[in-house]
């Protein structure tokens, strides 16, 4: 009976053009989503290459100017920009601290449309902790980006609903269900076989289409085999969950109209409602302090520190005797007082910034505790991790940039306080920023949660079979 169902159900699907339509729709959706994701990735690479080329050109000009100064030639540059002083190099010739896209960044836009992907730390950049966000379109943030993650999470369930909402009800409404009563098969087994065939075809088409668009866009499959395998595994498990929902709804509802309304309602709940509720709940329970108020507080602290820079410098040199002025002929400059005050400002700002960061972490922890309520959240976060565009990736990048900014500043402080000029030989010793992507975490827990959710839904659907005594031993 199983082989009979698979054979004739496949014939019916091909005759009704469902398979052909699915192939066309998925190729179009996945192709455009991959192209759109690649365009964003290429623009991101171009931005990083452009700013890196600008820094490279600036460095070449700096070395030429420095060579002229070292040979005693007259230069026409502004005095405070001449690179024989360490502060001029630290401010006007920074390094690019960039987060280049990974080979799979096109899978999911994630946080990349909310945060900048390159920063140029300077020795005076004390507000670096606040400069990681950039202005984005509120419309785009509302609707998201059309990438592969969007297609799988939002659009693929709608195709599944259209593909499976009336599997049982259409047979009942046409009267053909009674003709199948003579066959030795129970109702839920018959329905499960028909849905299993639909899942097989959709899974096969999805897998083939994803690999096809990867190859068409020259994505190195062999270098990212495990990540692509995880991507396909999560996608197909997510598809299986929606087929399980279709199975349960087909058994419990009585008409095609009710099936469609129920499945669309579940789509709204799992894909839109639960994520929105969790986001709103986090914002209500752990509100983020006003950035405007935080900036005003920072300005107040800076103004107070500026008024007592001389006292701050004396205390700073007392605590750091290695930075004390060794040459009695040297006069204290603006930078001596400024850099000393920056250390004090940084310490006084730590409670302000910590409060802001703690609220963000609490919101993230709340979401972590309840992600199992929505398969859409689980899949979105997993795909963001695979694309190296998740919140963990950008938090790691942000922390690494802050550490590098401290290294950049500390590299020039001994030169400043020990009256040491910057030379051509010092150029090769400048700190360089390196970004190491976070290793993709195992997605096995996500697969287990999705599978368990699907099994629970199947159990709820099968319960309908045992509740109804009329359908316990008959296909009708």
Structural category: mainly alpha
Helix content: 55-70%
Shape: elongated
Number of domains: 1
Structure annotation, total helices: 16
Separation, N- and C-terminal Cα atoms: 17 Å
Computed Rg? 31 Å
Provide an overview of this structure.
- The protein is mainly α.
- It has one domain.
- The chain is 68% helix and 1% strand.
- It is built from 16 helices and two strands.
- The chain has a two-stranded antiparallel ribbon with strand order 1-2.
- Helix 8 packs parallel to helix 16 (444-467).
- It is elongated.
- The two termini are 17 Å apart.
- Mean pLDDT is 81; it is low at 134-142 and 469-476.
Descriptive tags:
disordered C terminus; single chain; 68% helix; mainly alpha; 476 residues; 1% strand
Quick rundown:
The chain is an all-alpha fold. Helix content is 68%, strand content 1%. It starts with a helix and ends in a 9-residue tail after the last helix.
Please outline the helices and strands:
Layout lengths: L1 H14 L2 H53 L15 H7 L4 E2 L19 E2 L18 H6 L4 H17 L4 H6 L12 H30 L8 H28 L3 H30 L5 H17 L1 H11 L14 H36 L5 H12 L4 H27 L6 H4 L16 H24 L9
Antiparallel strand pairs: 1-2
């Amino acid at each position: 009976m199983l082989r009979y169902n698979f054979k004739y159900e496949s014939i019916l699907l091909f005759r009704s053009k469902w398979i052909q339509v699915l192939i066309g729709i998925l190729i179009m959706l996945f192709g455009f989503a991959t192209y759109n994701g690649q365009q964003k990735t290429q623009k991101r690479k171009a931005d990083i290459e452009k700013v890196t080329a600008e820094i490279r050109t600036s460095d070449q000009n700096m070395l030429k100017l420095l060579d002229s100064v070292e040979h005693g030639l007259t230069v026409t540059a502004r005095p405070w920009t001449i690179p024989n002083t360490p502060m001029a190099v630290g401010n006007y010739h920074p390094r690019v601290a960039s987060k280049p896209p990974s080979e799979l960044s096109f899978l999911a836009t994630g946080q990349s449309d909310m945060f900048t992907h390159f920063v140029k730390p300077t020795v005076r950049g004390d507000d670096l902790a606040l400069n990681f966000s950039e202005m984005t379109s509120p419309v785009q943030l509302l609707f998201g980006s059309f990438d592969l993650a969007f297609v799988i999470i939002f659009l693929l369930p709608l195709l599944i609903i259209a593909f499976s909402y009336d599997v049982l009800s259409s047979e009942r409404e046409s009267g053909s269900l009674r003709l199948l009563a003579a066959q030795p098969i129970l109702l839920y087994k018959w329905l499960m076989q028909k849905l299993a065939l639909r899942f097989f075809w959709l899974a096969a088409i999805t897998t083939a289409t994803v690999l096809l668009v990867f190859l068409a866009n020259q994505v190195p499959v062999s270098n990212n085999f495990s990540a692509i395998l995880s991507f396909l595994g999560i996608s197909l498990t997510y598809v299986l969950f929606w087929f399980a929902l279709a199975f349960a709804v087909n058994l419990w509802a009585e008409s095609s109209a009710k099936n469609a309304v129920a499945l669309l309602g579940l789509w709204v709940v799992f894909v839109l409602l639960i994520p929105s509720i969790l986001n709103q709940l986090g914002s209500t329970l752990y509100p983020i302090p006003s950035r405007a108020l935080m900036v005003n507080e920072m300005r107040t602290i800076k103004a107070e520190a500026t008024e007592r820079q001389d006292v701050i410098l004396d205390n700073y040199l007392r605590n750091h005797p290695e930075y004390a002025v060794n040459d009695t002929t040297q006069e204290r400059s603006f930078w001596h007082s400024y850099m000393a005050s920056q250390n004090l400002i940084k310490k006084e700002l730590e409670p302000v910034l910590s409060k802001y960061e703690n609220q963000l972490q609490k919101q993230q922890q709340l979401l972590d505790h309840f992600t199992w309520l929505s398969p859409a959240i689980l899949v979105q976060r997993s795909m963001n991790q695979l694309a190296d565009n998740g919140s963990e990736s950008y938090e790691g990048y942000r922390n690494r940039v802050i550490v590098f900014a401290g290294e950049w500043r500390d590299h020039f402080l001994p030169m400043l306080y020990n009256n040491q000029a910057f030379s051509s030989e010092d150029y090769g010793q400048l700190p360089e920023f390196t970004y190491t992507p976070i290793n993709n975490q195992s997605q096995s827990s996500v697969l287990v949660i999705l599978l368990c959710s699907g099994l629970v839904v199947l159990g709820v659907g099968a319960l309908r079979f045992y509740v109804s005594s009329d359908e316990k031993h008959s296909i009708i």
